[in-house]
Amino acid sequence: MENREKNTFRKKIILCVVAGFILGAIAKLFVVDILSVSGNSMTPTIKDRSTLVVNKLAYGIVNPFSNEFLYQWAYPKKDDIVIFLHCNKIVVKRCIATQGTALEFLADSEYILKVNNKTIPLKEEEYKRLSSFSQVPSGYVLVLGDNIEESIDSREYGFVAVKNITGKILGK
After folding, report:
1. For residues 109-140, b (16+ Cβ closer than 10 Å) or e, as one string?
2. 55-65: per-residue pLDDT in tens?
């Protein structure tokens, strides 16, 4: 009787451990993730080597194998800090304008983008890339790093497709 009870107990322990791994994997793929930041593009809000918690359900259910939504129920809002893939790297940036937001470009002595009462300096090539848009296109957002001097962001690579945003940073 003792051996049978030990075997049953072992089977229950193994079942609990396997179930825990499966639930943990599902949570990491679809619900929440923990990331470590490398770089200063979001300083002072997020410092280099900070650890962040990502809500992967903020905008919908993400397909973890394609970084697009299986089902989407919300869109990023102005000032959300979002994550997305760019050049096979996870990027953390602040959403400064959403679809339909008016964009104003000035090219006097320097190149400038004005959006939501914010003045953003541009280089000539960034100005040429973005200035044909009078507003943020449907299905896209404009993202910037908080440390505008060191950030590579929408000024460099253009608007970010909402379908590619895989989560929202919690607690910042």
Report:
1. eebebebeeeebebeeebbebbbebeebeeeb
2. 999 999 888 77
